[in-house]
Amino acid sequence: MSRLKEKYQKEVMPVLTKEFEIKNSLEVPRVEKIVVNTGLGEMIKDKNLKDIVSKELAAITGQIPSVKVAKVSIAAFGLRAGMPVGLTVTLRGEKMYDFLDKLVSITLPRLRDFRGVPLKSFDVRGNYTLGIVEHTVFPEIDLSKGVTPRGMEVSIVTNAGTPERAKRLLELLGMPFEKQ
């Protein structure tokens, strides 16, 4: 069992149950999945980019990404329907907890001038989306191989229902929010 999952079951669940006065254990806010996305906009110039980025994303998440293709053609961007435009990975279970643990304890503190993640990134249902400017902050990426830094988006999907409950859940799991 991953360290963060154990922490959730032994420490976080009892605190959330008490704070929100939850009677049914299935109602306790929890992380359901984490979705990691990155775009392949420059692939029009470099055909090998998809394979390179796919390997990097697989190293970061521990899971092979799926390719997202364009649904419509946009001539101004040189984009045709069916062309690959991004890669996405959906993490659940152990891999999800391992990735979240690595994100909050290793990756985020490595960001330059890091003062916490913004509180305004919650949606109305309590899901949290975080943009990472350079994927090179992940320890799996070897900078000596001439890696081009690229952005990625990490969406943490919860069953919390409200931003307040989700914030408390992520806070207890160790997410470093910025000070108000």
From TrEMBL:
GO cellular component: ribonucleoprotein complex; ribosome
Keyword Ribosomal protein among UniProt keywords: yes
Transmembrane segments: none
Coiled-coil ranges per UniProt: none
One term of GO molecular function: rRNA binding
Keywords, alphabetical: Ribonucleoprotein, Ribosomal protein, RNA-binding, rRNA-binding, tRNA-binding
Superkingdom of this protein's organism: Bacteria
InterPro entries (alphabetical): Ribosomal_uL5, Ribosomal_uL5_bac-type, Ribosomal_uL5_C, Ribosomal_uL5_dom_sf, Ribosomal_uL5_N
Function statement: This is 1 of the proteins that bind and probably mediate the attachment of the 5S RNA into the large ribosomal subunit, where it forms part of the central protuberance. In the 70S ribosome it contacts protein S13 of the 30S subunit (bridge B1b), connecting the 2 subunits; this bridge is implicated in subunit movement. Contacts the P site tRNA; the 5S rRNA and some of its associated proteins might help stabilize positioning of ribosome-bound tRNAs.
Assembly behavior: Part of the 50S ribosomal subunit; part of the 5S rRNA/L5/L18/L25 subcomplex. Contacts the 5S rRNA and the P site tRNA. Forms a bridge to the 30S subunit in the 70S ribosome.
HAMAP family reported for this sequence: Ribosomal_uL5_B
Protein name in UniProt: Large ribosomal subunit protein uL5
Record organism: Candidatus Woesebacteria bacterium RBG_13_46_13
Taxonomic lineage from the root: Bacteria, Candidatus Woeseibacteriota
Gene (UniProt): rplE
